[in-house]
Amino acid sequence: MTVREFEKGIHVELSKGATYGDYLRLDLILNAQERRSKPPQHDEMLFIIQHQTSELWMKLMLHELDAAREYVCNDNLESSFKIFSRVAHIQRMLFEQWSVLETMTPSEYLEFRDDLGKASGFQSYQYRAIEFILGNKDANTLRPLQHEKTLYAWLDARLHEPSLYDEFLRYLARHGHPVPKDTLDRDFSLPYVSNPQVMAVFQGIYETPDKNWDAYEMCEKLVDVEQRFQLWRFRHMLTVQRVIGFRSGTGGSSGVGFLKKALDYRFFPELWDVRTELKAPGRNV
Q: Taking the mean position of all CA atoms in its chain, how far away is CA 238?
């Protein structure tokens, strides 16, 4: 039998607060999985950990998107590109996590579903904050948090902030692109409305990428984020349908039908619409 030598330099005399577990606060994290079912149902542990880890990835994603927006505000698109590369991997992790939850059968979920009460992913304030920074603004989505004053105020502030897309349009305006003023100076708490003048700006960028390379690259980074987000939404919808069919959601929504409607929303509408209007270089039709 081969035994790896325990090296003499490995630290074994550690004080409280100096260990790996202390640094990561594993005392809090690993004791946060409290099953409500009585007797405790086996698959409730999977359900809790699935959603807790998703919230951790969303926290990191929001952290990164905030940084990307700050780079755009400071006219530093190149630094934001590294951020978007990381966001892509975070989104991949969120997408792949559904495969673990899909191992739970409908009958296994029903063993503890009633113990959720009215709790629902719709109430995830981090998910909502991600939607807000990407541009999906809806004041009604704050209503489930009206009893949580601190969280409500935090999310309400984000509702009124410019989205990543808003800041990119401001960047384009600062660099000489004819972005209409009413798009730049608007109530950012309201949903963004597609503007044909903005699409004309993007058409010019896409048809002359050599003259607008950073802006061109940024456009594609944003499309990447939205495409992966929509794939995540679609996988979520299919997972829900697989586990509960067409039952209503625990949060009071229609369930699968409600999730399906989200697939019709676009964060960056002109970046998708412009593809239909593009002309080949050197051609007028």
A: 18
The DSSP 8-state label assigned to residue 31 in this structure reads T
Query: Tens digits of per-residue pLDDT, 58-116?
Result: 999 999 999 999 999 999 999 999 999 999 999 999 999 999 999 999 999 999 999 99
The set of residues, in sequence order, having a beta carbon less than 8 Å from that of 263 and lying 6+ positions away, is: 230, 233, 234, 237
Asked if residue 209 lies in contact with residue 216, where contact means CB atoms within 8 angstroms, the answer is yes
| Model pTM above 0.90 | yes
Q: Report yes or no: 88 and 228 within 8 Å, Cβ to Cβ.
A: yes
What is 29-55 written as a DSSP string? HTT-----SSSPPHHHHHHHHHHHHHH
User: 151: part of which helix (H) or strand (E)?
Assistant: helix 149-159
Encode 219-233: b = buried (16+ Cβ within 10 Å), e = exposed: bebbeebbebbeebb
State the Cα–Cα distance between residues 131 and 110, nearest whole angstrom. 30
What is the total residue count of the chain?
A: 285
For the chain, the maximum distance between any two Cα atoms, rounded to a whole number of angstroms, is 76
